[in-house]
Amino acid sequence: MEKLQIKLEKWVNGGYCLAHHDGHAVFIEGGLPGELVDITLTKQGKKEWFGVVTSVLEPSKFRIPSDCPVYLECGGCSYRHLPYEEELKLKTNLLESMFPKWKGKTDVIFGPMEGYRNNVQWQVVGNEIGFFEKNTHQIVSKTSTLCKNVDKRLLVEDSKTFLTQNTKHQKNHTNHNQKFGRSISLRLSKEKIVQYDLEETEIEVLGTQLKVPAKGFFQINQFLLETWLKKMKSLLPESSKVLELFCGCGTIGIALREKITSLYGIESHDNSIQYAIENAKRNGTNSYQYVTKDLYKGYLPKELKQYAIWIVNPPRSGLSKGIIDSTTKLKPKIMIYSSCNPSTLQRDLRLLEAVGYRMDSMSLFDFFPRTNHYEVLVRLKRG
């Protein structure tokens, strides 16, 4: 692989520093703006190259020693060579560069930067357990014992004991590949640790008892979940009639039930909808309806016009054209939108602004400290 000496220019999205060489934009991991570094190129396209820092010749004043011996090798983190307070500034600046009108006005919410993950997917190859090295199917040694992002209860102290305890139910596990091994997915449940792709999870949040189906989505940051829900609650008017899109097992709407008089939830996975129905009953919420529908196909029914408030929590791909177009017919007054992908959020907000919506609240929730990811919560009002 080719090696270069290069001067780093600025941060860009994805955890990269940008530099230029011989007419190519070079996206580099493990550096800081202003540094002179040696890099190894990992990918060379026609216009864009990618590389990783191998040595630092002129360090930035912000550089700190990484607290992880396999940082950059496993590819899970982007900022372990940067103080956390600087990481928060960086993420805020990158977000506000996408939404210039909000420069200096974004709420930034964060919690502990270690042990925040309530779930993990360990890769298993033979008797090795851990995370794959970036762009390979090779286990990075000791990641399963030392990852600082994962709750300590989910780490692996003894691989032999761990495999004995966690493979006895996996004879028919579909996530198995003879060449690349298999994975074991763990999540903190109310009273135990479960394999969340095989078993349901029990969660208690804001006085709400929830069950999440096997393979069901749930937010991973155990420290910010309540804060995130409380912020949404503060953005809701009293006595709201809510349409909740991508509702999963009903977490948001049920947790915010004190301010919701009626709710219609839509999710594409029928199993999640069945759990949402049961979770609503379990928490004494009888005015909620839940249905299964593929939200990436077609438009929303005109009968949903009675719901003036929308809560949307889509996957990284964001909202569909059908959902955006449906706002022109259903005309919700308020939309509360939680996004794990600022790029698709920016795209969707541009389209929603074109049909009469304006953002009046934006919060950055650092759900994923030390990585390049974060959650953005916004409120839009019509007119």
UniProtKB/TrEMBL annotation:
Tell me if Lipoprotein is a UniProt keyword of this record.
Answer: no
Q: Name one GO biological process term.
A: rRNA base methylation
Q: Which branch of life, at top level?
A: Bacteria
InterPro entries attached to this UniProt entry: MeTrfase_TrmA_AS, NA-bd_OB-fold, SAM-dependent_MTases_sf, TRAM_dom, U5_MeTrfase_fam
Q: In the record, what terms sit under GO molecular function?
A: rRNA (uridine-C5-)-methyltransferase activity
Catalytic class of the enzyme:
transferase
* Any Pfam family matching the protein: tRNA_U5-meth_tr
Start and end residues of each TRAM domain? 1-55
E.C. number = 2.1.1.-
* UniProt keyword Transferase present: yes
Which residues take part in binding S-adenosyl-L-methionine? Q219, F246, E267, N313
UniProt keyword annotations, A-Z = Methyltransferase, S-adenosyl-L-methionine, Transferase
The catalytic residues are: C340 (nucleophile), C340
Which PANTHER family did the record assign? RNA M5U METHYLTRANSFERASE, TRNA (URACIL(54)-C(5))-METHYLTRANSFERASE
Entry's family note: Belongs to the class I-like SAM-binding methyltransferase superfamily. RNA M5U methyltransferase family.
What's the protein here called? Putative RNA methyltransferase, TrmA family
Q: Which organism is it from?
A: Leptospira biflexa serovar Patoc (strain Patoc 1 / ATCC 23582 / Paris)
Recite the lineage of the species.
Answer: Bacteria, Pseudomonadati, Spirochaetota, Spirochaetia, Leptospirales
